[in-house]
Design goal:
The protein is mostly beta strands. A five-stranded mixed beta sheet has the order 15-19-18-17-16, with no helix packed on it. Bound molecules: beta-L-arabinofuranose.
Length: about 350
Amino acid sequence: MFKINRCMLALMLAAGASLQQTVAVADGKPVTSPRNFASAPLVTDIYTADPSAHAWDGKLFIYPSHDIATDSSENNSGEQFAMRDYHVLSMDKVGGRVRDNGVALSVDDVPWAKRQMWAPDAARKNGKYFLYFPAKDEQNIFRIGVAVSDSPTGPFVAQPRPIPGSYSIDPAVFADEDGEHFLYLGGIWGGQLQRWQTGKYTEEDRYPTDDQAAIAPMVAKLSSDMLGFAETPRKIELLNPDGTPIRAGQTDRRFFEAAWMHKYNDTYYFSYSTGDTHNIVYATGDSPYGPFTYRGVLLKPVLGWTNHHSIAKFNGQWYLFYHDAQLSGGQTHLRNVKMLPLTYNADGSIQTLSAFAENRG
Ligand code: FUB
């Protein structure tokens, strides 16, 4: 899952050189000058990644993964991402204090989950807040769980079992204007989506050939109580601008992981990470189910292997939330969340962002 290609290595080394400009050391971690980066980490007391952001009641809430140091070696199934709990971040205004609200849910309090609490998301309905999260069960299979709270910052109480019919990673919930909620999911390689291509879990990885359609991300409408799927997850069709399916060999634009959905001017924007080519890209369509047509790169590769994002509007401005590995000096599994303003062009396309200040636009 986390092989480093030559281009990425060059980028990391270049950025790593600028990281020699350490300005402080906090808790043994180097804190570097933000001047070579387009923005600064939102929190520095813990490592955070995979930020899913929501603006509710005039506040911004960010639901990140909580990265921790581990002895697990780096490998393609992502064992080095050994996270055990979630913290919710909140802020009243951009540039103001970012509050770490402490442990919102721990793996020890989820009866079915054994390890690797990866990228979460949250939703609210009828005064309740729902935290959706992937974790590996006793059989080492990723499932998606849901936990409930009266507060957006938790603590959350997990349902005793994972969502029936759920699998793979990176749940992202989209609330449409008509009140329906949709859960997007999936990730290949360590995210195991390639093991569900027959409809059932298989121990062996099944990938399409380069000229076949790439493995599709999945979407399901949520049930009215938000605790399960209202339907069997469906495949999302991702198309090239010429109308042909994006193929597995198109690694610069095929789906890898980190799905996100937002709506802008009545158009549905499905964005995701291309994994081993390290971009966040986006595609647009007329329905939350797709099909979605590829439009371009939203965020160029960041410092670190993974690229993961969310998009939310706060006080009239759209923002991109993402992570890089600035605080850890580039360590793949020790990341920090950040945010940048997002700009739409008149034709609905989004201006490409870079996490590096010298490389913007
Ligand atoms: O944080 C663990 C995994 O790394 C996430 O689930 C992926 O999206 C990638 O960011």
